[in-house]
Amino acid sequence: MFNTIFEPPFFPVTAEAVREFAALAALMQAEVRRPEVAQQESIVLYLKLFLLKAIRIRTAQPALGTEENPSGREPWLLQQLQEAINTHYRHLHTAGEYADLLRVPARSLTRLVKSHYQKTLSQLITERIIMEAKRELYLTSQSVKAIAFALGFGDEHYFSRFFKKNTAVSPQFFRESVGFAKAEES
Predict the structure, then answer these.
(1) What's the pLDDT at 73?
(2) How far apart (Å, rounded) are the C-alpha atoms in residues 143 and 147?
(3) Percentage of the chain exceeding pLDDT 90
(4) Which own/partner pairs from 47-55 qualify as long-range (CB within 8 Å, at least 24 positions apart)?
(5) Do 179 and 47 contact (CB within 8 A), yes or no?
(6) What is the DSSP letter of 73?
(7) Dist CA 175 CA 39 (whole Å)
(8) Of the candidate ranges 110-119, 125-134, 139-148, 174-183, the one whose mean pLDDT is the lowest
(9) Does residue 144 contact residue 16 with C-beta atoms inside 8 Å?
(10) Fold classification of 132-185 (topology level)
């Protein structure tokens, strides 16, 4: 949601923010109970407001974890890993490939990742691929097959199974649910 797979997907909120989130949730619930014209569009707008509020709160806060590490810096190897994942996620899909790229033993790298992020290296790689897939599905009119190939999948059906396993919906359903070619419309 915050365009990073390297930070926890949660953050503290104030009591006032909780009230605002609850009010928006109540508006969405009320809209669900009233089947009227443009009901779905209204719910999507409330959801976008909810997410916008969350993004504003999160971006106003310092990076999580800086209390333990006053410099706010991660170990050098993890910084290199982040850069490597963000650069090579389209072609490198396994933990071993990143360990080889960084010239470190795979076990050491996976242990460091697990202790720092509370996720496996494979989860980080998968999250980065899924984040890009969602962005492409939302912002472009490229076919699912083209997106699959651009993300390093030789088979669009394998990509569709991979996407569904990690998001619980098919790429086509995701595209139909969240919009289509938003970047191309403007």
Answers:
(1) 56
(2) 6
(3) 56
(4) 49/24, 50/21, 50/24, 50/25, 51/1, 53/17, 53/20, 53/21, 53/24, 54/1, 54/21, 55/1, 55/2
(5) no
(6) P
(7) 19
(8) 174-183
(9) no
(10) Arc Repressor Mutant, subunit A (1.10.10)
- CA 158 to mean position of chain CA atoms: 20
For the chain, the average pLDDT equals: 85
Dihedral (C-alpha) 31, 33, 37, 42: value to the nearest 10 degrees? 20
Hey, what amino acid is at 98?
Y
pLDDT digits (tens, 9 = 90+) for 131-144: 999 999 988 999 99
Whole-angstrom Cα Rg for the chain: 19
Which residues have CB under 8 Å from 72's CB, separation 6+?
A: 62, 63, 66
Cα(186)–Cα(168) distance, rounded to whole angstroms? 30
What is the residue whose two structure tokens read 């009010």? 23
pLDDT digit string (tens) for 64-81? 444 444 445 568 899 999
